[in-house]
Amino acid sequence: MALSLTSVVIPTYNRAAYLPLTVESALNQEGAEVEVIVVDDGSTDETAAIIEQKKNTWGQRFRYVWQENAERSVARNHGLRLARGEFVAFLDSDDLFRPHHVSMCVKALADDAELAAAFGDHGLIDASGNVISQHVRRPAFADDRFKREICLKQLIIFPGEVLIRRAALEDIFGTTEVFDPDAVMLEEWLLWVTLLCKFNFRRVGHPTVWRRLHPNSTWGDPETFERQSARVTEKVIGTGLPASLGIPSRRVRAINRTHCAYGYYLSGQWSLALHQLGEALREYPSVVRERHFWSVAARLGVGKRLSRRIRQARHLGRGNLITEPRPKP
Fold first, then answer.
1. Residues sharing a CB contact under 8 Å with residue 113, sequence separation 6 or more, in sequence order
2. SS3 letters for 64-121?
3. Residues near 110 by beta carbon (within 8 Å), at least 6 away in sequence
4. What is the dihedral of CA 86, 177, 62, 156, to 10 degrees?
5. Helix, strand, coil shares of the chain as percentages rounded to 5?
6. Angular region, 186: left φ>0, alpha ψ -120 to 50, beta rest
7. Mean pLDDT confidence for 91-115
8. For residue 165, is pLDDT > 80?
9. Which of 46, 40, 30, 48 is nearest to 71 (CA)?
10. Four-point Cα dihedral 177, 164, 214, 94, nearest 10
């Protein structure tokens, strides 16, 4: 029986050092038919030259397009317009698929035609590809509990972990942009909530992706994150899903304030981090019951020197070096 085609869209910007292994991890999926579309969002490094060197090896299942810098939502939408697959995945250009990611997610979707998406778990690697953690485990939420955790950002699913049924995207979005072109952060959160208004997701329960932690990971400056978070939060509330689940809008806003606090903490701006926690309390006093509130507060409480050492240690791999095999001819 012929395998259904999966289109893997990889937006990239100045990730020449990581991109080849990312592409090869997608091309080398076992038990799956895959095409890979790299959308270069105006890179100024050696990305184009490396693509030129590799494209013949990668063959006809690989396609590369360049666009003026317009951020990753626009790049993902660009790739989706070129995609031919029944299923679609969006892989960041510094992360890696493990060999059975696509086949395991496709099987989950094939088992239930009502699902919009299936997702795996992830492990962590450092900048050099050394393992930090084989499996970052998640609670097995389902149905309305799963939707609540997504709305509240208590459960965060990264784009590369998810395989989406294209028909579900077309059902909700038609021919319009799937990712909000004005959202340069949290765009995937808005997409998940929008899909969950009508469909369900399924967790496959196995680590199928490597996420890479490195100093240049795309987090963005905290001021931009704060602005984007406020904007996307209102759009999430506007979908109506939080209200349908009994979640007050103030709670969603307050939890996002705690995520902004974490962003300021990461940048070393502790006074602004504390300000964000205070704003969260003013918005929704019961935010003190949220685990993320106390997670950020605890980090701020250990002192800057120890906190810096903890953050640095988190980016150091202590396990084996991850190297993906070259794609099959």
1. none
2. EEECCCCCHHHHHHHHHHHCCCCEEEECCCCCEECCCHHHHHHHHHHCCCCEEEEEEE
3. none
4. -80
5. 45, 20, 35
6. left
7. 96
8. yes
9. 40
10. -80
Given its phi and psi angles, is residue 52 left (phi above 0), alpha (psi -120 to 50 degrees) or beta?
Answer: alpha
- For the segment 199-247, what is each residue's pLDDT rounded down to a tens digit? 999 999 899 999 998 766 655 688 999 999 999 999 999 999 999 999 9
d(CA 321, CA 125): 9
Q: Residue 327's pLDDT is what?
A: 46
Q: Which helix (H) or strand (E) holds 287?
A: none
CA–CA distance, 256 with 252 (Å, rounded to integer): 6
Tokens representing residue 138 in the block: 């998640």
The DSSP code for 320 is P
Integer angstrom CA distances of residue 240 from 49, 50, 63, 196: 46, 45, 38, 11
Is residue 97 within 8 Å of 29, Cβ to Cβ? yes
- Interstrand relation of 162-165 and 115-125 (parallel, antiparallel or unpaired): antiparallel
Encode 133-181 in three state secondary structure.
Answer: EEEECCCCCCHHHHHHHHHCCCCCCCHHHEEEEHHHHHHHHCCCCCCCC
Average pLDDT estimate for 242-267? 95
Q: What would the two tokens of residue 177 be?
A: 């942009």
To which H or E segment does residue 313 belong?
Answer: helix 304-314
Give which of 321, 88, 98 is closest to 208, Cα–Cα.
98
Task: Look up residue 297 and give its two tokens.
Answer: 């507060």
Of 256, 219, 260, the closest CA to residue 235 belongs to 256
Go through the chain and tell me how many residues it has. 329
